[in-house]
Amino acid sequence: MQQNSIDVMEDTVAFLRDKVTAIDNAGADLAKRVHSLDDAAASTHAKLLQLRATVDSRDSDYHSTFQGLALGQQQLKGALADHQQALAKHQDVTANSVAELQWKTGDVTSRVDTHDRRLDVVDADVAGVSTRQQDAAHVVASLDTRLDMLANQHVKAQNLHLKLDAAVSGMDKELRRRLDDAEKAFDGLNLDLGEVQWAQGETNKMVEVECKELARSVHAVHGEMRDVASNLPKFHELKKMLDGLQHVELNDSEAVDKQLNALALSIAQIDLKQEHFRSHSTSFPEDLKNDLSGLLLRAGRLISGSIRCQLHFKLLTDDGANVDEAAILHGLRMAAAASFAKKVHQLVDKLSPPTDAKYSVQARDIFERRLRVCLECRFKDGTPNQHDNHDLGPKKGLKTNPIDTRTVIPRRSGHTNVPQKANAEPIHVHPHTKEKFVYRGGFRLPKNGSKPSTDGIEAPVDLNDHPCLEKVALVGTFQVRDEYGV
């Protein structure tokens, strides 16, 4: 039994020795292959170095390509070193395996297979290196071709450079010739410029003399304009006098209307000057009162003449025995005054459209009523008619200007702080004296129980001191209508 075991062991050792011998033979073959690969790599490296020296001598532009080849060679050497290290490791593993054959017999076969696979990988790497060597040979051939092309291009560049040198020489000669011509032209222009400057100097002297004369003329004109400006107010006064003295045919309705429209426009403009102050007071300053009085006087003259012409036309048309001259005259006066006041109101609204402010509308209505009353007073204050002494009929004695004794005028009539009783007069308070009063026939009467005297009614009305519409409307109310002319 022991002899059989010994025989088996000897057979096993013999088998293992054969395997080790085979492995050694394979390692020797691998060493030979590696040595041959090293020789091939060395020869390839020598050729590459020679090729690199040749390429560097021809053109430095392809230095980067040779650096790539050198880098590939270094990588190849690294790969070979890796293979050598792997082979050494394999040998170490094989030695360890031989020492441990009794315990790792099964692993020997698998490691042999692994070694075979690694040998296949090494063969593949060797084939790749050969392929890279062929690619490097192709690159070197292409580099040679490109170097030949660069040489041809260099020859062409030299020929082109010679042509450019010849062209530059010709252009230099042409430029020098042009510069000579330009210098001659510049000298001629300098001469012309000197002549022009001399002529300009003479012209400047003449212009300076003319400017001095013009300055004297302007100074004289300025003095005359200053005199005219100082006399401008006199011219305005003269224009006003001429407008007042201008003769207008009263039977020419167009001329009269033109003059009245101009006067109405002037009055409307004066009223608009006080438009801003109407919320505080409806009275006018003294200067505007004077202007309005003059304009109303001129308008009254024109309207009076026009009324007289209309009256004559009416008397010439109808039978004089059946015509009520006083009634016709009164109607024409009232209509003319109302028409002119309405025209002024329309012009004011046209120049400045009315706003929503209540005081503005009331002030314009008050101004229209004042104009109408002033013109009516102007017509009544004319020359008395001494020939008309016949009694007035009941129609002529009627009131044509009724007085409102109840309406409270804003900022003129005071305010009411006492509640009104049924069927009783409203009691008002004076805005300044705080005195209570009532309206009786258009007059303010103190609320003290005393009856008003007739002297107060016959007293003259002062229109300048605190004017009010009640007093203005009362002027001439109780006077005979036909006692005054136009």
Describe the protein in words.
The chain has 486 residues and is an all-alpha fold. It folds into two domains: 2-168; 237-483, no CATH class. It is built from ten helices and three strands. The chain has helices spanning 2-58, 63-99, 105-230, 232-245, 253-273, 286-317, 325-351, 358-380, 454-458, 469-474, and strands spanning 428-429, 436-440, 443-446. The chain has a three-stranded antiparallel beta sheet, with no helix packed on it. Strand 1 and strand 2 form a beta hairpin. Helix 1 packs parallel to helix 3 (105-230). The chain starts with a helix and ends in a 12-residue tail after the last helix. Residues 382-399 and 450-486 have low confidence and may be disordered.
Topology record:
Elements: H1 2-58, H2 63-99, H3 105-230, H4 232-245, H5 253-273, H6 286-317, H7 325-351, H8 358-380, E1 428-429, E2 436-440, E3 443-446, H9 454-458, H10 469-474
Antiparallel strand pairs: 1-2, 2-3
